[in-house]
Amino acid sequence: MSMMTDMESLKVNYQKGKDLSEGVFILEPLSPGYGQTIGHALRRVLLSSLTGAAIYSVKIEGVSHEFSTLNGIKEDIVDIILNLKSLRLRLEGDEPTVIKLDKKGPGVIKAKDFQNNPLVKIADLNHHIASLDKNGKLVLEATVKKGFGYEPVERRKDEKLPLGTIAIDSIFSPVKKINYEVENTRVGQMTNYDKLTLEITTDGSISVEEAFNSALKILIDHFTFIQSKIEKVKPKSEKKEVVESEVKKEKTKTATKKTAVKKEKPAKKRK
């Protein structure tokens, strides 16, 4: 049985979780060893290479740096920044945008208190931002942008931000957790085929199916690109063999022509 014949019998099943952010994909049967190969590749891509959105920087009224404090607010600025850092978002389009918040106390500020921005969708509207007493007030502007993986502030140390703007470590990856398991499964009399189970949890900004399909596309695009490069460039040894073969052919043709000329040359007449 060829490997492509094995692939023709492959089944992909999807089991939904309690919401769109949780789900399980089951792939079987896979050729022996391919459960680990595919599972490991998908896990790496899902965790590090999917595009997501995050708060990139914030400007808070009355605050010049993250170690400042504001009267009337229970949390210090560091805690507020950590709450903004963990806020999960979805950004339409590729350009950065700004979300604004202007709230007076007393009360608890949640993500739903941000002013509406049609380009930004907040995954958890009940996400905690800060707590205000009756004299408290929080006014801020947060910049949201797209990226992938994790981008610490240290990586942006040469970036110049406007005065009073605080850079934030950005967690762009929309996938929170990915576990995979490989088990044996039966195909006819063979019991060494693989069954791959992928358990995926996203942050709610994208569905599990979106995440899975995006990871597959990234892998396919990379392999297709690599293949196109191999097809365009021949190995040096192969090029050398081709050149040597052409030279030999030319020498053989030249020698053949000379022999033919000698044979056709008429004999000199005797006097």
Automatic annotation (TrEMBL):
GO terms for biological process: DNA-templated transcription. It comes from the Bacteria. Residues 236-253 have a biased composition (Basic and acidic residues). Residues 254-271 have a biased composition (Basic residues). The keyword Transmembrane helix does not apply. Keywords: DNA-directed RNA polymerase, Nucleotidyltransferase, Transcription, Transferase. It is an enzyme of class 2 (transferase). Its EC number is 2.7.7.6. GO terms for cellular component: cytoplasm; DNA-directed RNA polymerase complex. Belongs to the RNA polymerase alpha chain family. The keyword Cytoplasm does not apply. Pfam families: RNA_pol_A_bac (PF01000), RNA_pol_L (PF01193). The lineage of its organism: Bacteria, Candidatus Berkelbacteria. SMART domains: RPOLD. One of its GO terms (molecular function) is protein dimerization activity. InterPro entries: DNA-dir_RNA_pol_insert, DNA-dir_RNA_pol_RpoA/D/Rpb3, DNA-dir_RpoA, RBP11-like, RNApol_insert_sf. Residues 236-271 are annotated as: Disordered. Residues 22-229 form the DNA-directed RNA polymerase RpoA/D/Rpb3-type domain. It catalyses: RNA(n) + a ribonucleoside 5'-triphosphate = RNA(n+1) + diphosphate. This is DNA-directed RNA polymerase subunit alpha.
